[in-house]
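User: For my dataset I need records formatted as: sequence, then structure tokens, nothing else. Please produce one.
Assistant:
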Amino acid sequence: MDNTILIIASVAVGAIVGFIIAKILERNNASKLVKSAKKSASAIIKEANVEGDGIKKGKILQAKEKFLELKSEHEKVILSRDKKMAEAEKRIRDKESQISSELSKNKKLNVDIEGKVKDYNHRLDVLDKKQEELNRLHKSQVEQLEVISSLSADEAKSQLVESLKGEAKSDAMAYVQDKMEEAKLTAQQDAKKIIINTIQRIGTEEAVDNCVSVFNIESDDVKGRIIGREGRNIRAIEAATGVEIIVDDTPEAIILSCFDSVRREVARLSLHKLVTDGRIHPARIEEVVKKTQKQIEQEIIEVGKRTVIDLGIHGLHPELIKMVGRMKYRSSYGQNLLQHSREVAKLCGVMAAELGLNPKLAKRAGLLHDIGKVPDAEADMETPHAILGMQWAEKFGEKPDVCNAIGAHHDEIEMKSLLSPIIQVCDAISGARPGARRQVLDSYIQRLKDLEDIAFGFNGVKKAYAIQAGRELRVIVESEKVTDQIAADLSFNISQKIQTDMTYPGQVKVTVIRETRAVNIAK
């Protein structure tokens, strides 16, 4: 037990002694570490001081170099500014010297001008004195002449003027009389020469139209298909086009009869399409006729364009071009209106060139002189065609000379341009050629138009066609507005109106057609 305590005590004492020794050693080591650290720190500080001095010296050197560089640049800028200022000062000195020289010159000029002004004033004074002296001498001479001639100056002047007037008047009258006699001798001869030369340079064929067209077919079997079952196809064609279809024993031909050439052309083209297609029935007929009518309208525009291009006319309004195209399907006393207008335009161009006028303007007036014969509405038909054509030309921007020539070519208005008598003469030349016109045809066509107009004067009439050379009037009414009883009354009223208002040979049959359709579409 005692040994154990001793051991523990010795161990404890040893531990204490070891701890004390360790502490002492630790202090010694710490002091050594501190000393070494201080040495390292001093070395580092010394090194840092050396490096700092080097960096400082380097920065000072860089700053000095930068300063020297900036200083040199600044000196360059100052030198350039000084140079510019020197140049500016030199220019200013030059300007000042130039201005001073100019001022000296101006002073000299002012002195010279003042001297000249004084000289001129002196001369003016001398001239005024001389003028006064001349006036005094002239007055004294006039007084002396008045005393010698016993006439005043005004009386002598009036006598002189009267004598000069008389001489000039007699000379002028003699000159005018000579020119009038010369014009009488040569005017008729020159006019005949111009007209003959113009006619010789325009060669045209006879332009007589007729009222029938022949539609050629390949075989007579097609006639039966065109007629249709119980004649329904031919009735549909006649109702849609207003053209009488004559199917007789003529081999491989069908005759289309109508006074309106547009309707005949629509019917001919429609028949051609139907026969070529092979499908001929009422619904198809109406469809083809509508398409053909649109095609004819387009063709009218194309004909008008080709005509103005052929004649070298430019800048014509599209509506006037359309009217020119419509003239192809109109006739005047049997003469095709478009061919007549083209002929008049060429005649006018040649005649205007011979007379030294504007041939292009003359052609323009010649082409448009009969546009009033293709009216759009029934109200326009009451206006003379020359006046109507002039109104249309004014509306679509034609020149006053052209408008006056159109309106005056039948003496309905006063001629105010040299083109007007040329248009009148050329129109007469074109219409007076042998075989150019047929007077009876025009009255016949007018009678058929009057027949149709009478029918259109009644309510409910949709279409009216004069056929059978005016012996039958076929009237198509609107089924919604006209009943069967009203249709019968309408037929009687139209026949009575024709009988009282018109003069015609033979009889006129009035046929009123009322048709009701019910159309539905299966989808």
